[in-house]
Amino acid sequence: MQTTFTPEQLEDPGIARANEILRSCVHCGFCTATCPSYQVLGDELDSPRGRIYLIKDMLENGRDADEEVAKHVDRCLSCLACMTTCPSGVHYMHLVDHAREHIEKTYKRPLMDRLLRWTLARIIPYPGRFRFALLGARIGKPLRRFVPDPRLRAMLAMAPARIPALSRNDDPQVFPAKGERKKRVALLTGCAQKVLDTDINDATIRLLTRLGCEVVVARGMGCCGALTHHMGKTAESHGSAAANIRAWMAEDRGEGLDAIVINTSGCGTTVKDYGYMFQDDPLADDAARVSELAKDISEVLVDLDLPEGSVGQRVAYHAACSLQHGQQIRSHPKSLLKRAGYEVVEPADSHLCCGSAGTYNLMQPDISAKLKTRKVRTLEAKEPDIIAAGNIGCMVQIGGGTEVPVVHTVELLDWATGGPKPRKLG
Fold first, then answer.
1. pLDDT above 90 for 312
2. Are 381 and 288 found together in one domain?
3. Less Cβ crowding at N or C end of the chain, within 10 Å?
4. Which domain holds residue 234?
């Protein structure tokens, strides 16, 4: 794609990077076939190619974002299926993230949009606030049909019937390896996940220590910054990320780390991008080290001696977009489940998003609901005993549309190797 940025514009590192990405696009349109929002809406401007044109025009002309640009960029799920399918290697993720930052700085959204985005950014990344908000949402849930804004109705509808008690395993501490220590790893405990489902981190710690890992929950660690990053709130997202970088580097410089284990793939995609996010920051070297250490739980487990099992349950594996597209990890979770003795099946169109996408199911409930319905239908068509996923957002989204238990992959692996039966299986 030809661009016409001026030399003065290209002095801005963000514009220079956007220019590189734009120039790599050849307008082929392969991305439209795998874009969930385009599949639902059929509008060229709701495809990656269409959004690229909008972003190019906005940035080249140095103008503020307007309602049209904001609308179509907001409809992007950042599922990154377009990056998997693109033959030219267009790094759409960095381009759309830059566009979101520009929109956040230059576009005055309607009042309700601003309030909702402000509220989400100041509640979900903070477990205490999030837990309190969910308790309030449970009280208001029966009255949701009287709420005029569909986004507020979606937020109330997603309030869980049960909020688990705090797990003390999420407190800063060290869990020693069982037997010989093979690895020393830090665990990202997350923010929303440790409120919505404490079983995931508990199972992760049990499984890793059983397989010879010392597991560190670092002091000073918090939200990875993904939620605010995808809202274009760069200062807030970098603040969260910087705290994690310092916390993990203190451990790495101390007794050392072999990996930073992440069991929420949406977080993993962002943490692995810290090196890029902080490339012009004094923390650049430390951020690059953290990105190097960051591993999805499945990447760590394939290097350990996971025992073979014979569970026999039929598991439909849902590939989270952040894992299969964002991190290009496709085979590890399936091979681990098979080794543990599960019968693994995959749904049709497994590359398409379930519609969760961080806060997307709250801010774009209509599109999200259509994607959820499609995903649940394809999963249920496989007649599974269990649906497995590696991302809490996907689990909540899919679980809200099916009676089939939705369980984190690591919980199933823990069960197959001596851990307790996952609570969701009864």
1. no
2. no
3. C
4. 168-301
Q: Based on the fold, state whether residues 287 and 235 are members of the same structural domain.
A: yes
Q: Which amino acid is at 330?
A: R
DSSP letter at 87 equals T
End-to-end CA distance of the chain: 55
Summarised one tens digit per residue, pLDDT across range 93-112 is 999 999 999 999 999 999 99
What DSSP character marks residue 185? E
For residues 302 and 308, the answer to whether their CB atoms sit within 8 Å is no
CB-count burial class (<10 Å; 0-12, 13-18, 19+) for 36: buried
Domain endpoint, select from 301, 325, 353:
301
* DSSP helix/strand/coil, 219: coil
Question: In 124-179, which ranges are continuous DSSP H helix?
Answer: 127-140, 150-157
* β-bridge mates for residue 315, sequence order: 344, 386
Same domain for 292 and 275: yes
Residue 334 in contact with residue 315, Cβ under 8 Å?
no
Phi, psi torsion values for 72, nearest 5 degrees: -80, -35
Give the residue from 392, 403, 266 showing the smallest Cα distance to 321: 266
- The last residue of one of the domains, among 84, 106, 128, is 106
286 close to 277: Cβ distance less than 8 angstroms? no
Sequence-distant (≥ 6) Cβ neighbours of residue 180 within 8 angstroms:
212
Return the H-helix or E-strand segment holding 426: none
Query: What is the phi/psi pair of residue 45, to 5°?
Result: -75, -10
DSSP 3-state assignment of 166? coil
Which parts of 10-110 fold into alpha helices (H)?
A: 13-24, 36-41, 48-60, 67-74, 81-85, 92-106
- Count of other CB atoms within 10 angstroms of residue 167: 16
Rounded CA-CA distance 340/54 in Å is 47
User: How many folded domains does the chain comprise?
Assistant: 4
Question: pTM for this structure?
Answer: 0.94
Dihedral through CA 293, CA 299, CA 303, CA 308, nearest 10? 150
Local confidence band at 309 (pLDDT 50, 70, 90 cut-offs):
confident
> Which residues fall within 8 angstroms of residue 174, CB to CB, at 6 or more apart?
214, 215, 216, 217
Nearest 5°: the CA angle 339, 341, 345 is 90
What is the token pair recorded at 305? 């001696």
Query: Tens digits of per-residue pLDDT, 244-302?
Result: 999 999 999 999 999 999 999 999 999 999 999 999 999 999 999 999 999 999 999 99
The rounded distance, in Å, linking the Cα atoms of 406 and 395 is 6
Q: Are both 278 and 181 inside the same structural domain?
A: yes
Nearest-angstrom CA–CA distance, 162 and 158: 11
